[in-house]
């Protein structure tokens, strides 16, 4: 049965963040403080380095280790938020990590981000990407889709959610200080969250 390899997921996410770091920083320059690409790059490089030092045995332990590194090394809003995502994912995932298990843990991660950041759908944050991805996973799993199809649906939903942040006025985070002027720009955190979902698709083994 196909499973998401959580260590591979972390490594794929780091690689995608590297490839998109300049884009993420440019997005944050428009509506924030131009550090989202470097924040994420620093955190994910540290997460990959930690995996190279020691790769824990279970998906839960890999996710927890990654969470703690992200919380420690990423400054700004996104560190605690992505850290909380992985921490709650770690608490919910079971050893098998098949797609049903993955979908449940992903939803738990999203719930953690919401609990921590208090963002609602439409606030122009990473929640606008992670929410539709979690919904797509749940729907696919409920419909009996296999892991690849479920993750394909999640990737498409995440990309659509990310794109839909462009016209929104930010109501959370630094971009909210801009008020109406935040409209017309894609949200940086929603963009990196779409890379997180794309990375999970690539980490299917
Ligand atoms: P900072 O805003 O501290 O500079 P980053 O630039 O690394 O941190 O991350 C900004 C991203 O964090 C935003 O684009 C948004 O997606 C996300 N974000 C900010 N605040 C919240 C929140 N309360 N809930 C969810 N996501 C948030
Ligand atoms: Mg920033």
Q: What would you note in describing this structure?
A:
With 205 residues, this protein is mainly α. The protein is 69% helix and 0% strand. It is built from 8 helices and no strands. The protein has helices at residues 6-31, 36-53, 59-73, 78-92, 99-117, 127-142, 147-164, 188-202. It is globular and about 45 Å long. It starts with 5 loop residues before the first helix and ends with a helix. The model has no long low-confidence stretch (mean pLDDT 97). The structure holds adenosine-5'-diphosphate (ADP) and magnesium ion (MG). Adenosine-5'-diphosphate (ADP) binds at residues 28, 32-33, 35-36, 39, 76-78, 81, 113, 117-119, 125-127, 172-174, 187-190.
Outline the secondary-structure elements.
Layout: H1 6-31, H2 36-53, H3 59-73, H4 78-92, H5 99-117, H6 127-142, H7 147-164, H8 188-202
The structure holds adenosine-5'-diphosphate and magnesium ion.
Which structural class fits the helix and strand makeup?
Answer: mainly alpha
Share of residues in helices? 55-70%
Calculate the mean pLDDT score and round it: 97
Overall, the morphology is globular
């Amino acid at each position: 049965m196909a499973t998401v390899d959580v260590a591979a997921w972390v490594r794929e996410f780091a690689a995608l963040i590297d490839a998109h770091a300049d884009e993420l920083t440019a997005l944050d320059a428009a509506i924030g403080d131009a550090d989202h690409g470097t924040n994420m790059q620093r955190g994910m490089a540290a997460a990959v380095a930690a995996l190279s030092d020691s790769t824990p045995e279970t998906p839960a332990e890999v996710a927890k280790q990654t969470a703690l590194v992200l919380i420690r090394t990423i400054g700004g809003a996104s560190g605690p938020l992505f850290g909380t995502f992985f921490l709650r994912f770690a608490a919910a995932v079971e050893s098998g990590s098949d797609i049903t298990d993955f979908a449940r843990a992903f939803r738990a991660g999203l719930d953690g981000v919401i609990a921590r950041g208090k963002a609602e759908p439409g606030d122009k944050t990473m929640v606008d990407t992670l929410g539709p991805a979690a919904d797509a996973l749940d729907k696919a799993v409920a419909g009996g889709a296999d892991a690849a199809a479920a993750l394909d649906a999640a990737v498409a939903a995440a990309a659509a959610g990310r794109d839909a942040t462009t016209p929104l006025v930010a109501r959370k985070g630094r971009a909210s200080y801009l008020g109406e002027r935040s409209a017309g720009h894609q949200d940086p955190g929603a963009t990196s969250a779409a890379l997180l979902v794309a990375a999970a698709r690539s980490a299917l083994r």
